[in-house]
C-alpha cells in the first residue's frame, strides 16, 4: 500500500492514503458538485467519506443528471473508502511536522544526498523514511524541509530571471563612504 507521510487535510504527520471523493447536491435544474482529491489520514478519511457521501445520499437525487451521477458517486466513494480502510490509524499524539533550526541543522548535511535520490525518481516518502533515523528527525520533518528548500530554490530562480543569464551583482556588504568634498583651489 502506497502511504503518504503527511495528511493533506489536517496537516498532521500520520500514514495517509490517496483518495478521490465526490459530492453531489441536485436541485432539479441546477446541481452543485464538489470533489476532494488528496492524501488523507485515517481520521480525515472517515470524516470526508461520511460527510460527502451522506450529503450525496440525502440531497443528490433531484434532477436528471443528478439521478445518474448520485449512485456513481456513492459507489465510487464507498469503493475508495473500503480500499483505504486497511491503512494504519493515526499514531498517538500525532502533530503537524515543524522545521525548527535544530531540524535544519540536522538535515542540512544530508540535503545533497537526499536530492540526488529524488532526482533519480525515487519517491519522497521512501527517501524521507530512510533518512529520518540518520538525521534524528521525523520523516514528516524531512518532507517539510525538502519543500522549504525547493521553494527557496524556485524563488531564487524567479528573482534572478530578469538578468537573462547574466551574472547578478551581489549586494555590497558595506556602505560606501560619501564622496570627498571638492577642495577649492586658491588662486593668488
Ligand atoms: Zn488528517
Structure description:
The structure is a single chain. The chain has helices at 42-59, 64-84, 101-107, 111-119, 124-135, 139-159, and strands at 4-6, 13-27, 30-41. Mean pLDDT is 87; it is low at 167-177. Strand 2 and strand 3 (30-41) form a beta hairpin. Helix 1 (42-59) runs antiparallel to helix 2 (64-84) and helix 5 crosses helix 6 (139-159). The chain has 188 residues and is α+β, with helices and mostly antiparallel strands. Helix content is 47%, strand content 16%. It has two domains: 4-84, no CATH class; 101-161. The protein has a three-stranded antiparallel β-sheet with strand order 1-2-3. It binds zinc ion. The site of zinc ion has 8 residues, from strand 3 and helix 1.
Q: How would you briefly describe this protein structure?
A:
The chain has about 190 residues and is an alpha+beta fold. It has helices at about 40-60, 65-85, 100-105, 110-120, 125-135, 140-160, and strands at about 5, 15-25, 30-40. The chain has a three-stranded antiparallel sheet with strand order 1-2-3.
Write a concise keyword list for the protein shown above.
188 residues; alpha+beta; 16% strand; 3 strands; 2 domains
What can be said about the biggest beta sheet?
3 strands, antiparallel
How many strand units? 3
Strand order in the sheet with the most strands = 1-2-3
Give the helices and strands as they follow along the chain.
EEEHHHHHH
Model regions low in confidence, pLDDT < 50 over at least 5 residues: 167-177
Task: Give the fraction of residues assigned to helices.
Answer: 40-55%
What is the count of structural domains? 2
- Class from helix and strand fractions: alpha+beta
Amount of beta strand: 15-25%
Bound molecules: zinc ion
